[in-house]
Fold this sequence. Notes:
Shape: globular
Bound molecules: glycyl-adenosine-5'-phosphate
Number of domains: 3
Largest sheet: 7 strands, mixed
Helix content: 40-55%
Strand order of the largest sheet: 3-9-10-16-13-12-11
Structural class: alpha+beta
Mean pLDDT: 95
Distance between the termini: 38 Å
Strand content: 15-25%
Low-confidence stretches: none
Radius of gyration: 27 Å
Number of strands: 23
Amino acid sequence: MAQQxxxxxKIVSHAKEYGFVFPSSEIYDGLAAVYDxxxxxxxxxxxxxxxxWDSMVLLNENVVGxxxxxxxxxxxxxxxxxxxxxxxxxxxxxxxxxxxxxxVLIEDLMAKYDDKINKEVEKAAKKFGETxxxxxxxxxxxxxxxxxxxxxxxxxxxxxxxxxxxxxxLRQIIVDYEVVCPISGTKxxxxxxxxxxxxxxxxxxxxxxxMKVFLRPETAQGIFVNFLNVxxxxxxxxxxxxxxxxxxxxxxxxxxQFIFRMREFEQMEMQFFVRPGEELEWFEKWKQxxxxxxxxxxxxxEKYRYHDHExxxxxxxxxxxxxxxxxxxxxxxxxxxxxxDFDLSSHEQxxxxxxxxxxxELNKSYVPYVIETSIGVDRMFLSVLSASYCEETxxxxxxxxxxxIPAALAPVKVAVMPLTKKDGLPEKARQIIDDLKFDFxxxxxEKDSIGKRYRRQDAIGTPxxxxxxxxxxxxxxxxxxxxxxxxxxxxxIDDLAKIIGEQxxxxxxxxxxxx
Length: 515
Ligand code: GAP
């Protein structure tokens, strides 16, 4: 675990050092849980967005995109349930004046019992060596069983408290299990209160009577309220989908783990409108398709898993998360929800406008059911960065840090390097870039030894480095070096666009999804 935390710290500092992610407002000591993407980060982020967008609107004839505004009529958030129910239970420590999410304190408490169990198992494994049977030990060791029972007892109380929205009981669990504030070390807690996660601001001047508006906490509602606009103007027939990428804002209280939980972040959401009664079939289809999208990137398949929800939101009749193994454990990257007709019906009710579809085959009108796929761009970015980060010891004893980013997503596709700064080699290198730059993000580098230049490109995940040497001037060939294998081959300059193009194209990924 400690080793994993180390790796995570290294990834965070690598992201900063190489221009992927900077803390926001850094010269003013930062702004908690807000981040800026740097020159490399924005390229990777744009490529992730393109991969998602094209997989939606190119691969599916019946999926179209929109780009709705961040500000929306405030009643939308009443209809969606966000005004009344988009809350976190908060508790303050009276001595440190620090605020915590009560549910997170309890989750951390349960994790401590898991840690204790794992430590017992590790200790016994060392003691008994090869003959050790970890499963049997977990089932029989009295200390393990005691800790397991405690954790289960807390879990049962916690689940019941959440189901009943019982804030007093949440506090009581914290008190009963003597949870202390990590800052003050005391158990002096306030009551638990609900805290709404939406940011608000005012629209219009105060003299005219300003209207309180919210910064959208999800992009989905912009799709729901445009459902009929798109259906009518696009002559869309059910089933069809509307996709959108955009910023969302949440006043997260526990903001930690870098870009995993941010206050300003980006979502890629698609709402797929279907006939009532057919939603579970479509839910299964989108569940499979979305996992294929993730897996097509080629990271180890065991890094992904589904987490099917047992407890469903009142408006959902099926829900699953796609979780990815981050350096701090398996975490949700994407949610796929069968949202029934909840949102459209609720908007019908609050707006007084009909949001129905006339189905010519059934010869009747209905409010469509919806399957939602919702993925965070930043979480996807973090998963790509952490799965790509690799420290290797080379044959000569040196180490290299390489980002094995899938070539289609890499920020820079090709670096062109003249072996020396003279004899016309820089000019030849520039000529090559002038040819390739229309298709690929290229970088020119003539400083330092070739070895150092390779290391710099490895650190940002550039899949190809081309070296221009004296032979290039004679026979119009260059060496192409492959990032992952570090192998080099001599190829004709005329073939470069084809060789690179095949490797960095998203087409290969899309074919895997469409299989
Ligand atoms: N429209 C459904 C919806 O918004 P959600 O599970 O709250 O569902 C969807 O969010 C996705 O948005 C999550 O799976 C996650 O990837 C991303 N996300 C949510 N909150 C986030 C935050 N504070 N920071 C970064 N990403 C977040």
